[in-house]
Amino acid sequence: MGKSNKCKAKKQSYISVPSQIITSLSSSSLQSLLLSPKKAHLNSSFFVGHNYSCRRPRVCLSALFLFVLVGLLRLGWNVNTLVLCSQSFGSNAGKVGERDHQVLVTSQLQSPRPLHLESEFWKQPDGMGYRPCLELSAKYRKASEAILNGRSKYLLVVVSGGMNQQRNQIVDAVVIARILGAALVVPVLQVNIIWGDESEFSDIFDLGHFKRVLADDVRILSSLPSTHVMTRPVEEKLTPLHVSPQWIRSRYLKRINKEGVLLLRGLDSRLSKDLPPDLQKLRCKVAFQALRFAPPILELGNKLARRMQSKGPYLALHLRIEKDVWVRTGCLPGLSKEYDEIVHNERRRHPEFLTAKSNLSYHERKLAGLCPLNAFEVTRLLKALGAPRSARIYWAGGQPLGGKAALSPLTREFPHFYNKEGLALPGELEPFANKASFMAAIDYIVSEKSDVFMASHGGNMGHAIQGQRAYAGHKKYITPNKRHMLPYFVNSSLPEAEFNRIIKELHQESLGQPELRSSKAGRDVTKYPVPECMCKRNKTT
Fold this sequence. Notes:
Organism: Gossypium aridum (American cotton)
Distance between the termini: 76 Å
Structural class: alpha/beta
Pfam families: O-FucT
Membrane topology: Single-pass type II membrane protein
GO biological process, one term: fucose metabolic process
GO molecular function, one term: glycosyltransferase activity
Protein backbone atom coordinates (compact mmCIF):
# COMPACT_ATOMS: atom_id res chain seq x y z
CA MET A 1 0.00 0.00 0.00
CA GLY A 2 2.95 2.29 0.75
CA LYS A 3 4.29 1.58 -2.66
CA SER A 4 0.94 2.42 -4.20
CA ASN A 5 0.75 5.81 -2.49
CA LYS A 6 4.27 6.60 -3.60
CA CYS A 7 3.27 5.89 -7.15
CA LYS A 8 0.27 8.21 -6.91
CA ALA A 9 2.31 11.03 -5.45
CA LYS A 10 4.91 10.78 -8.14
CA LYS A 11 2.79 11.65 -11.21
CA GLN A 12 -0.77 12.29 -12.27
CA SER A 13 -2.09 12.40 -15.81
CA TYR A 14 -5.05 14.27 -17.26
CA ILE A 15 -7.29 13.42 -20.21
CA SER A 16 -9.73 15.91 -21.74
CA VAL A 17 -12.99 14.05 -22.33
CA PRO A 18 -15.74 15.62 -24.51
CA SER A 19 -19.03 16.15 -22.68
CA GLN A 20 -20.92 13.86 -25.04
CA ILE A 21 -18.85 10.92 -23.78
CA ILE A 22 -19.55 11.81 -20.16
CA THR A 23 -23.30 12.11 -20.67
CA SER A 24 -23.42 8.81 -22.53
CA LEU A 25 -21.94 6.84 -19.62
CA SER A 26 -24.03 5.26 -16.89
CA SER A 27 -23.48 6.45 -13.32
CA SER A 28 -21.61 3.24 -12.42
CA SER A 29 -19.34 3.57 -15.48
CA LEU A 30 -18.70 7.21 -14.65
CA GLN A 31 -17.75 6.26 -11.09
CA SER A 32 -15.32 3.65 -12.41
CA LEU A 33 -13.58 6.44 -14.39
CA LEU A 34 -13.45 8.96 -11.57
CA LEU A 35 -12.90 6.82 -8.42
CA SER A 36 -9.72 4.91 -7.60
CA PRO A 37 -10.11 1.35 -6.24
CA LYS A 38 -9.47 0.81 -2.53
CA LYS A 39 -7.36 -2.27 -3.16
CA ALA A 40 -5.26 -3.50 -6.01
CA HIS A 41 -4.88 -7.19 -6.72
CA LEU A 42 -1.23 -7.96 -7.13
CA ASN A 43 -1.90 -10.87 -9.45
CA SER A 44 -4.08 -8.92 -11.93
CA SER A 45 -2.64 -8.27 -15.38
CA PHE A 46 -3.49 -4.56 -15.68
CA PHE A 47 -7.17 -4.30 -14.81
CA VAL A 48 -9.88 -6.68 -13.77
CA GLY A 49 -13.42 -5.33 -13.57
CA HIS A 50 -12.98 -1.88 -11.95
CA ASN A 51 -9.70 -2.62 -10.17
CA TYR A 52 -6.60 -0.93 -11.55
CA SER A 53 -3.02 -1.77 -10.71
CA CYS A 54 -0.71 1.16 -10.17
CA ARG A 55 2.37 -0.90 -10.78
CA ARG A 56 2.26 0.08 -14.46
CA PRO A 57 0.73 3.60 -14.61
CA ARG A 58 1.46 4.07 -18.32
CA VAL A 59 -0.44 0.91 -19.14
CA CYS A 60 -3.34 2.13 -17.01
CA LEU A 61 -3.34 5.42 -18.88
CA SER A 62 -3.26 3.63 -22.24
CA ALA A 63 -6.21 1.46 -21.28
CA LEU A 64 -8.23 4.48 -20.24
CA PHE A 65 -7.30 6.28 -23.48
CA LEU A 66 -8.50 3.30 -25.56
CA PHE A 67 -11.77 3.21 -23.62
CA VAL A 68 -12.43 6.89 -24.36
CA LEU A 69 -11.35 6.47 -28.01
CA VAL A 70 -13.84 3.64 -28.56
CA GLY A 71 -16.57 5.83 -27.10
CA LEU A 72 -15.65 8.65 -29.45
CA LEU A 73 -15.71 6.42 -32.50
CA ARG A 74 -19.09 4.97 -31.56
CA LEU A 75 -20.50 8.49 -31.41
CA GLY A 76 -19.12 9.33 -34.88
CA TRP A 77 -16.60 11.84 -33.53
CA ASN A 78 -13.55 13.00 -35.38
CA VAL A 79 -10.59 11.52 -33.54
CA ASN A 80 -8.76 14.81 -33.95
CA THR A 81 -11.02 16.39 -31.35
CA LEU A 82 -9.55 14.13 -28.68
CA VAL A 83 -6.78 15.94 -26.85
CA LEU A 84 -4.47 14.02 -24.57
CA CYS A 85 -2.66 16.23 -22.09
CA SER A 86 -0.15 14.60 -19.77
CA GLN A 87 1.27 17.10 -17.29
CA SER A 88 3.35 16.76 -14.15
CA PHE A 89 1.33 17.37 -11.00
CA GLY A 90 2.11 20.75 -9.41
CA SER A 91 1.94 24.35 -10.52
CA ASN A 92 0.68 23.49 -14.05
CA ALA A 93 -2.47 21.72 -12.84
CA GLY A 94 -4.59 24.87 -12.99
CA LYS A 95 -3.51 25.56 -16.58
CA VAL A 96 -4.41 22.02 -17.56
CA GLY A 97 -7.88 22.56 -16.14
CA GLU A 98 -8.27 25.69 -18.25
CA ARG A 99 -7.25 23.81 -21.37
CA ASP A 100 -9.66 21.00 -20.55
CA HIS A 101 -12.50 23.48 -20.27
CA GLN A 102 -11.60 25.04 -23.66
CA VAL A 103 -11.46 21.62 -25.32
CA LEU A 104 -14.86 20.69 -23.89
CA VAL A 105 -16.44 23.92 -25.13
CA THR A 106 -14.89 23.52 -28.59
CA SER A 107 -16.06 19.92 -28.78
CA GLN A 108 -19.63 20.88 -27.99
CA LEU A 109 -19.66 23.39 -30.87
CA GLN A 110 -18.44 20.89 -33.46
CA SER A 111 -20.70 18.40 -35.21
CA PRO A 112 -19.81 15.16 -36.99
CA ARG A 113 -18.88 15.60 -40.67
CA PRO A 114 -18.43 13.02 -43.46
CA LEU A 115 -14.74 13.72 -44.02
CA HIS A 116 -14.39 11.41 -47.04
CA LEU A 117 -17.05 13.40 -48.93
CA GLU A 118 -15.46 16.75 -48.04
CA SER A 119 -12.01 15.66 -49.17
CA GLU A 120 -13.49 14.46 -52.49
CA PHE A 121 -14.97 17.89 -53.23
CA TRP A 122 -11.66 19.64 -52.56
CA LYS A 123 -9.66 17.10 -54.59
CA GLN A 124 -7.67 18.74 -57.39
CA PRO A 125 -7.71 17.49 -61.01
CA ASP A 126 -4.83 15.59 -62.56
CA GLY A 127 -2.61 18.15 -64.30
CA MET A 128 -1.09 15.34 -66.41
CA GLY A 129 2.40 16.78 -65.94
CA TYR A 130 1.82 20.02 -67.89
CA ARG A 131 4.04 22.95 -66.85
CA PRO A 132 4.51 26.50 -68.18
CA CYS A 133 6.66 26.39 -71.29
CA LEU A 134 7.33 29.72 -73.02
CA GLU A 135 10.56 29.06 -74.90
CA LEU A 136 10.61 31.21 -78.04
CA SER A 137 12.06 30.29 -81.41
CA ALA A 138 15.47 31.42 -82.65
CA LYS A 139 13.74 33.44 -85.39
CA TYR A 140 11.68 35.35 -82.80
CA ARG A 141 14.74 36.09 -80.65
CA LYS A 142 16.76 37.25 -83.65
CA ALA A 143 14.01 39.68 -84.69
CA SER A 144 13.83 41.12 -81.18
CA GLU A 145 17.09 43.08 -81.49
CA ALA A 146 15.85 45.27 -84.35
CA ILE A 147 12.42 45.74 -82.73
CA LEU A 148 13.85 46.80 -79.37
CA ASN A 149 16.34 49.22 -80.96
CA GLY A 150 13.75 50.88 -83.21
CA ARG A 151 12.93 54.53 -82.53
CA SER A 152 10.61 55.41 -85.41
CA LYS A 153 7.28 53.63 -84.73
CA TYR A 154 4.94 54.04 -81.78
CA LEU A 155 1.59 52.43 -81.01
CA LEU A 156 -1.03 54.21 -78.89
CA VAL A 157 -3.95 52.11 -77.61
CA VAL A 158 -7.17 53.04 -75.80
CA VAL A 159 -8.81 50.07 -74.04
CA SER A 160 -12.41 50.04 -72.85
CA GLY A 161 -14.87 48.06 -70.74
CA GLY A 162 -14.46 46.57 -67.29
CA MET A 163 -11.12 45.61 -65.75
CA ASN A 164 -11.06 42.06 -67.13
CA GLN A 165 -12.10 43.21 -70.59
CA GLN A 166 -9.31 45.78 -70.49
CA ARG A 167 -6.81 43.04 -69.56
CA ASN A 168 -7.68 41.13 -72.73
CA GLN A 169 -7.19 44.23 -74.87
CA ILE A 170 -3.85 45.03 -73.24
CA VAL A 171 -2.65 41.51 -74.08
CA ASP A 172 -3.57 41.99 -77.73
CA ALA A 173 -2.06 45.50 -77.79
CA VAL A 174 1.34 44.06 -76.84
CA VAL A 175 1.06 41.41 -79.58
CA ILE A 176 0.04 43.97 -82.22
CA ALA A 177 3.00 46.18 -81.26
CA ARG A 178 5.26 43.16 -81.74
CA ILE A 179 3.69 42.38 -85.13
CA LEU A 180 4.32 45.97 -86.30
CA GLY A 181 7.78 46.20 -84.70
CA ALA A 182 6.60 49.29 -82.82
CA ALA A 183 7.13 50.56 -79.30
CA LEU A 184 3.98 50.45 -77.17
CA VAL A 185 3.01 53.50 -75.16
CA VAL A 186 1.35 52.42 -71.90
CA PRO A 187 -2.31 51.77 -72.80
CA VAL A 188 -4.89 54.38 -71.86
CA LEU A 189 -7.84 53.06 -69.84
CA GLN A 190 -11.00 54.68 -71.18
CA VAL A 191 -13.29 56.11 -68.50
CA ASN A 192 -16.10 53.62 -68.03
CA ILE A 193 -19.47 55.35 -68.49
CA ILE A 194 -21.29 52.71 -66.43
CA TRP A 195 -19.02 52.66 -63.36
CA GLY A 196 -17.40 56.09 -63.75
CA ASP A 197 -13.95 54.71 -62.95
CA GLU A 198 -11.14 57.08 -64.00
CA SER A 199 -8.25 54.80 -62.99
CA GLU A 200 -5.06 54.79 -65.03
CA PHE A 201 -2.91 51.80 -65.99
CA SER A 202 -0.45 52.30 -63.14
CA ASP A 203 -3.32 52.53 -60.63
CA ILE A 204 -4.44 48.99 -61.46
CA PHE A 205 -1.28 47.25 -62.69
CA ASP A 206 2.36 47.22 -61.63
CA LEU A 207 3.87 49.28 -64.47
CA GLY A 208 7.52 48.65 -63.53
CA HIS A 209 6.93 44.89 -63.47
CA PHE A 210 5.06 45.08 -66.79
CA LYS A 211 8.03 46.77 -68.46
CA ARG A 212 10.62 44.41 -66.96
CA VAL A 213 8.84 41.21 -67.94
CA LEU A 214 8.38 42.34 -71.55
CA ALA A 215 11.82 43.96 -71.91
CA ASP A 216 12.96 41.29 -74.41
CA ASP A 217 9.77 41.38 -76.49
CA VAL A 218 8.46 44.94 -76.90
CA ARG A 219 9.62 48.41 -75.85
CA ILE A 220 7.13 49.82 -73.34
CA LEU A 221 7.13 53.61 -72.90
CA SER A 222 5.25 55.68 -70.36
CA SER A 223 4.64 58.43 -72.95
CA LEU A 224 5.52 59.43 -76.48
CA PRO A 225 9.05 60.80 -76.90
CA SER A 226 9.40 64.53 -77.46
CA THR A 227 10.23 63.93 -81.12
CA HIS A 228 6.72 62.57 -81.74
CA VAL A 229 4.57 64.53 -79.27
CA MET A 230 3.31 66.89 -81.98
CA THR A 231 2.80 64.12 -84.52
CA ARG A 232 -0.82 63.59 -85.51
CA PRO A 233 -1.42 59.86 -85.13
CA VAL A 234 -3.09 57.72 -87.73
CA GLU A 235 -6.33 56.66 -85.99
CA GLU A 236 -8.11 53.40 -86.71
CA LYS A 237 -11.54 52.86 -85.13
CA LEU A 238 -13.04 50.05 -87.18
CA THR A 239 -10.66 47.12 -87.00
CA PRO A 240 -12.63 43.98 -88.00
CA LEU A 241 -12.99 41.00 -85.67
CA HIS A 242 -10.36 38.24 -85.51
CA VAL A 243 -7.82 39.69 -87.93
CA SER A 244 -4.57 37.88 -88.70
CA PRO A 245 -0.99 39.20 -88.35
CA GLN A 246 -0.88 39.43 -92.15
CA TRP A 247 -3.95 41.69 -92.12
CA ILE A 248 -2.37 43.89 -89.41
CA ARG A 249 0.80 44.35 -91.45
CA SER A 250 -0.95 45.00 -94.75
CA ARG A 251 -3.34 47.50 -93.16
CA TYR A 252 -1.10 49.42 -90.76
CA LEU A 253 2.58 48.88 -91.48
CA LYS A 254 2.93 51.35 -94.37
CA ARG A 255 0.92 53.99 -92.48
CA ILE A 256 2.87 53.70 -89.22
CA ASN A 257 6.16 53.72 -91.12
CA LYS A 258 5.11 56.98 -92.78
CA GLU A 259 3.44 58.81 -89.87
CA GLY A 260 5.35 57.27 -86.96
CA VAL A 261 2.35 57.01 -84.61
CA LEU A 262 -0.71 54.75 -84.83
CA LEU A 263 -3.72 55.04 -82.52
CA LEU A 264 -6.03 52.04 -82.06
CA ARG A 265 -9.30 51.90 -80.14
CA GLY A 266 -11.69 49.11 -79.25
CA LEU A 267 -9.40 46.09 -79.54
CA ASP A 268 -11.82 43.65 -77.94
CA SER A 269 -11.66 40.38 -79.95
CA ARG A 270 -10.07 42.18 -82.90
CA LEU A 271 -7.00 39.97 -83.09
CA SER A 272 -7.37 36.35 -84.19
CA LYS A 273 -7.32 33.63 -81.51
CA ASP A 274 -5.19 31.49 -83.83
CA LEU A 275 -1.73 33.02 -84.11
CA PRO A 276 1.75 31.60 -84.82
CA PRO A 277 3.26 29.75 -81.80
CA ASP A 278 5.65 32.56 -80.76
CA LEU A 279 2.84 35.12 -80.65
CA GLN A 280 0.65 32.75 -78.67
CA LYS A 281 3.46 32.39 -76.13
CA LEU A 282 3.75 36.18 -76.00
CA ARG A 283 0.03 36.35 -75.23
CA CYS A 284 0.51 33.97 -72.30
CA LYS A 285 3.55 35.88 -71.09
CA VAL A 286 1.56 39.12 -70.95
CA ALA A 287 -1.55 37.60 -69.38
CA PHE A 288 0.07 35.29 -66.81
CA GLN A 289 3.36 37.02 -66.00
CA ALA A 290 3.45 40.70 -67.02
CA LEU A 291 0.01 41.89 -65.91
CA ARG A 292 0.52 41.88 -62.15
CA PHE A 293 -1.72 44.07 -60.03
CA ALA A 294 -0.35 47.21 -58.39
CA PRO A 295 1.16 46.65 -54.91
CA PRO A 296 -1.70 48.22 -52.85
CA ILE A 297 -4.29 46.04 -54.63
CA LEU A 298 -2.10 42.95 -54.45
CA GLU A 299 -1.44 43.44 -50.76
CA LEU A 300 -5.11 43.75 -49.81
CA GLY A 301 -6.20 40.95 -52.15
CA ASN A 302 -3.62 38.58 -50.68
CA LYS A 303 -4.63 39.63 -47.17
CA LEU A 304 -8.29 38.75 -47.80
CA ALA A 305 -7.27 35.46 -49.42
CA ARG A 306 -5.21 34.53 -46.34
CA ARG A 307 -8.24 35.24 -44.15
CA MET A 308 -10.27 32.82 -46.25
CA GLN A 309 -7.45 30.24 -46.11
CA SER A 310 -7.00 30.53 -42.35
CA LYS A 311 -9.67 27.95 -41.59
CA GLY A 312 -9.08 25.52 -44.41
CA PRO A 313 -9.96 25.27 -48.12
CA TYR A 314 -12.46 27.61 -49.69
CA LEU A 315 -14.59 27.93 -52.80
CA ALA A 316 -14.82 31.13 -54.84
CA LEU A 317 -18.04 31.83 -56.73
CA HIS A 318 -18.35 34.46 -59.43
CA LEU A 319 -22.09 35.15 -59.38
CA ARG A 320 -23.42 36.90 -62.48
CA ILE A 321 -26.81 37.91 -61.11
CA GLU A 322 -26.69 41.72 -61.35
CA LYS A 323 -29.51 43.58 -63.13
CA ASP A 324 -27.41 44.48 -66.17
CA VAL A 325 -26.47 40.81 -66.67
CA TRP A 326 -30.12 39.72 -66.78
CA VAL A 327 -30.90 42.57 -69.19
CA ARG A 328 -28.01 41.86 -71.55
CA THR A 329 -28.48 38.08 -71.68
CA GLY A 330 -32.22 38.22 -72.38
CA CYS A 331 -32.83 36.05 -69.31
CA LEU A 332 -34.91 36.37 -66.14
CA PRO A 333 -33.73 36.08 -62.51
CA GLY A 334 -36.53 33.74 -61.41
CA LEU A 335 -37.19 35.69 -58.20
CA SER A 336 -40.70 37.04 -58.70
CA LYS A 337 -42.94 38.68 -61.30
CA GLU A 338 -41.91 42.06 -59.90
CA TYR A 339 -38.24 41.54 -60.71
CA ASP A 340 -39.02 39.96 -64.08
CA GLU A 341 -40.97 43.10 -64.95
CA ILE A 342 -38.01 45.30 -63.93
CA VAL A 343 -35.79 43.40 -66.36
CA HIS A 344 -38.42 43.52 -69.16
CA ASN A 345 -38.88 47.27 -68.75
CA GLU A 346 -35.13 47.96 -68.83
CA ARG A 347 -34.78 45.84 -71.94
CA ARG A 348 -37.61 47.66 -73.68
CA ARG A 349 -36.01 51.04 -72.88
CA HIS A 350 -32.58 49.89 -74.07
CA PRO A 351 -32.91 47.18 -76.73
CA GLU A 352 -29.26 47.79 -77.67
CA PHE A 353 -28.22 46.22 -74.35
CA LEU A 354 -29.40 42.79 -75.43
CA THR A 355 -26.36 40.79 -76.52
CA ALA A 356 -27.98 37.33 -76.60
CA LYS A 357 -29.72 35.90 -79.67
CA SER A 358 -32.82 38.04 -79.97
CA ASN A 359 -34.79 35.45 -81.94
CA LEU A 360 -34.87 33.06 -78.94
CA SER A 361 -37.40 33.17 -76.13
CA TYR A 362 -36.26 33.23 -72.52
CA HIS A 363 -37.04 29.53 -72.05
CA GLU A 364 -35.18 28.61 -75.25
CA ARG A 365 -32.16 30.57 -74.06
CA LYS A 366 -32.36 28.89 -70.67
CA LEU A 367 -32.42 25.35 -72.05
CA ALA A 368 -29.64 26.21 -74.51
CA GLY A 369 -27.37 27.09 -71.56
CA LEU A 370 -27.20 30.78 -72.47
CA CYS A 371 -28.52 32.12 -69.15
CA PRO A 372 -26.65 32.68 -65.88
CA LEU A 373 -27.44 30.26 -63.07
CA ASN A 374 -29.41 31.87 -60.26
CA ALA A 375 -28.57 31.28 -56.60
CA PHE A 376 -31.00 28.36 -56.27
CA GLU A 377 -29.46 26.56 -59.26
CA VAL A 378 -25.92 27.22 -58.04
CA THR A 379 -26.87 25.77 -54.65
CA ARG A 380 -28.32 22.56 -56.15
CA LEU A 381 -25.28 22.15 -58.39
CA LEU A 382 -22.80 22.55 -55.54
CA LYS A 383 -24.69 20.14 -53.30
CA ALA A 384 -24.87 17.56 -56.10
CA LEU A 385 -21.11 17.88 -56.65
CA GLY A 386 -20.52 17.15 -52.95
CA ALA A 387 -19.82 20.60 -51.51
CA PRO A 388 -20.14 20.22 -47.72
CA ARG A 389 -22.40 22.50 -45.73
CA SER A 390 -19.30 23.62 -43.81
CA ALA A 391 -17.66 24.88 -47.03
CA ARG A 392 -16.34 28.43 -46.80
CA ILE A 393 -17.48 30.39 -49.86
CA TYR A 394 -16.11 33.66 -51.21
CA TRP A 395 -18.65 35.46 -53.38
CA ALA A 396 -17.25 37.69 -56.15
CA GLY A 397 -19.51 39.95 -58.12
CA GLY A 398 -21.66 43.06 -58.05
CA GLN A 399 -24.87 43.80 -56.17
CA PRO A 400 -27.42 41.14 -57.16
CA LEU A 401 -30.84 42.11 -58.44
CA GLY A 402 -33.09 41.40 -55.47
CA GLY A 403 -30.43 42.07 -52.84
CA LYS A 404 -29.97 39.57 -50.02
CA ALA A 405 -33.16 37.72 -50.94
CA ALA A 406 -31.55 36.72 -54.25
CA LEU A 407 -28.72 35.06 -52.32
CA SER A 408 -30.85 33.37 -49.65
CA PRO A 409 -30.87 29.87 -51.26
CA LEU A 410 -27.06 29.89 -51.04
CA THR A 411 -26.73 31.38 -47.58
CA ARG A 412 -29.28 28.95 -46.10
CA GLU A 413 -27.37 25.90 -47.35
CA PHE A 414 -23.87 27.34 -46.97
CA PRO A 415 -23.81 29.69 -43.96
CA HIS A 416 -20.05 30.44 -44.22
CA PHE A 417 -20.59 32.94 -47.03
CA TYR A 418 -18.31 35.97 -47.45
CA ASN A 419 -17.44 38.79 -49.83
CA LYS A 420 -14.72 41.43 -49.74
CA GLU A 421 -16.87 43.81 -47.70
CA GLY A 422 -17.43 41.13 -45.07
CA LEU A 423 -13.77 40.09 -44.90
CA ALA A 424 -12.17 43.54 -44.87
CA LEU A 425 -11.47 45.31 -41.61
CA PRO A 426 -12.91 48.81 -41.07
CA GLY A 427 -11.16 51.26 -43.37
CA GLU A 428 -9.33 48.68 -45.54
CA LEU A 429 -11.58 49.20 -48.57
CA GLU A 430 -11.87 52.99 -48.22
CA PRO A 431 -8.93 53.80 -50.56
CA PHE A 432 -10.72 51.84 -53.30
CA ALA A 433 -14.24 53.22 -52.77
CA ASN A 434 -16.15 54.00 -55.99
CA LYS A 435 -13.40 52.43 -58.10
CA ALA A 436 -14.93 49.45 -59.86
CA SER A 437 -11.64 48.30 -61.40
CA PHE A 438 -9.96 48.12 -57.99
CA MET A 439 -12.85 46.10 -56.55
CA ALA A 440 -12.82 43.75 -59.56
CA ALA A 441 -9.06 43.25 -59.12
CA ILE A 442 -9.51 42.29 -55.45
CA ASP A 443 -12.22 39.79 -56.42
CA TYR A 444 -9.85 38.40 -59.06
CA ILE A 445 -7.02 37.85 -56.57
CA VAL A 446 -9.15 36.13 -53.91
CA SER A 447 -10.88 33.99 -56.54
CA GLU A 448 -7.65 32.94 -58.23
CA LYS A 449 -6.16 31.81 -54.91
CA SER A 450 -9.18 29.68 -53.95
CA ASP A 451 -9.05 25.90 -53.80
CA VAL A 452 -12.09 25.61 -56.10
CA PHE A 453 -13.55 28.23 -58.45
CA MET A 454 -16.88 28.35 -60.27
CA ALA A 455 -18.63 31.05 -62.31
CA SER A 456 -22.41 31.02 -62.65
CA HIS A 457 -22.01 32.30 -66.21
CA GLY A 458 -19.23 32.95 -68.72
CA GLY A 459 -17.55 36.31 -69.04
CA ASN A 460 -14.13 37.90 -69.08
CA MET A 461 -13.31 37.30 -65.41
CA GLY A 462 -14.28 33.64 -65.49
CA HIS A 463 -12.28 33.05 -68.66
CA ALA A 464 -9.22 34.88 -67.31
CA ILE A 465 -9.25 32.94 -64.05
CA GLN A 466 -9.75 29.66 -65.89
CA GLY A 467 -6.55 30.29 -67.86
CA GLN A 468 -4.67 31.56 -64.80
CA ARG A 469 -5.60 28.46 -62.77
CA ALA A 470 -4.61 26.18 -65.63
CA TYR A 471 -1.25 27.93 -65.96
CA ALA A 472 -0.74 27.60 -62.18
CA GLY A 473 -1.00 23.80 -62.38
CA HIS A 474 -4.65 23.15 -63.29
CA LYS A 475 -6.29 24.12 -60.01
CA LYS A 476 -9.90 22.97 -59.76
CA TYR A 477 -12.30 25.01 -61.87
CA ILE A 478 -15.92 23.90 -62.18
CA THR A 479 -17.54 24.69 -65.53
CA PRO A 480 -21.31 24.27 -65.15
CA ASN A 481 -22.63 22.06 -67.94
CA LYS A 482 -25.77 24.16 -68.19
CA ARG A 483 -27.14 22.91 -71.48
CA HIS A 484 -27.12 19.26 -70.40
CA MET A 485 -27.95 19.61 -66.70
CA LEU A 486 -30.86 22.06 -66.68
CA PRO A 487 -33.48 19.57 -67.99
CA TYR A 488 -32.81 17.52 -64.83
CA PHE A 489 -33.31 20.62 -62.67
CA VAL A 490 -36.93 20.92 -63.83
CA ASN A 491 -37.67 17.18 -63.45
CA SER A 492 -39.40 17.15 -60.06
CA SER A 493 -39.98 13.37 -60.16
CA LEU A 494 -36.26 12.60 -60.12
CA PRO A 495 -35.05 11.31 -56.71
CA GLU A 496 -32.33 13.45 -55.12
CA ALA A 497 -29.77 10.63 -55.09
CA GLU A 498 -30.31 9.97 -58.80
CA PHE A 499 -30.14 13.70 -59.55
CA ASN A 500 -26.81 13.96 -57.74
CA ARG A 501 -25.41 10.94 -59.58
CA ILE A 502 -26.38 12.39 -62.98
CA ILE A 503 -24.96 15.83 -62.18
CA LYS A 504 -21.64 14.36 -61.03
CA GLU A 505 -21.44 12.27 -64.18
CA LEU A 506 -22.11 15.30 -66.38
CA HIS A 507 -19.24 17.20 -64.74
CA GLN A 508 -16.56 14.50 -64.69
CA GLU A 509 -14.65 16.29 -67.45
CA SER A 510 -15.53 19.83 -66.36
CA LEU A 511 -13.39 20.22 -63.24
CA GLY A 512 -10.33 21.99 -64.62
CA GLN A 513 -8.47 19.10 -66.24
CA PRO A 514 -6.00 19.98 -69.02
CA GLU A 515 -7.87 20.61 -72.27
CA LEU A 516 -6.17 21.15 -75.61
CA ARG A 517 -6.94 24.50 -77.20
CA SER A 518 -6.45 22.92 -80.61
CA SER A 519 -9.41 20.60 -80.03
CA LYS A 520 -11.78 23.48 -80.82
CA ALA A 521 -11.15 26.28 -83.30
CA GLY A 522 -11.25 29.87 -82.07
CA ARG A 523 -10.39 29.17 -78.43
CA ASP A 524 -8.34 31.78 -76.61
CA VAL A 525 -4.89 30.61 -75.56
CA THR A 526 -5.15 32.65 -72.37
CA LYS A 527 -8.12 30.47 -71.44
CA TYR A 528 -6.70 27.17 -72.74
CA PRO A 529 -2.89 27.46 -72.49
CA VAL A 530 -2.25 23.82 -73.49
CA PRO A 531 -0.35 23.03 -75.71
CA GLU A 532 1.20 26.34 -76.89
CA CYS A 533 2.08 27.70 -73.43
CA MET A 534 2.34 24.51 -71.38
CA CYS A 535 4.21 21.31 -72.10
CA LYS A 536 5.10 18.01 -70.42
CA ARG A 537 8.63 18.41 -69.21
CA ASN A 538 10.46 19.20 -65.99
CA LYS A 539 12.22 22.33 -67.15
CA THR A 540 10.13 25.52 -66.82
CA THR A 541 10.84 28.41 -69.12
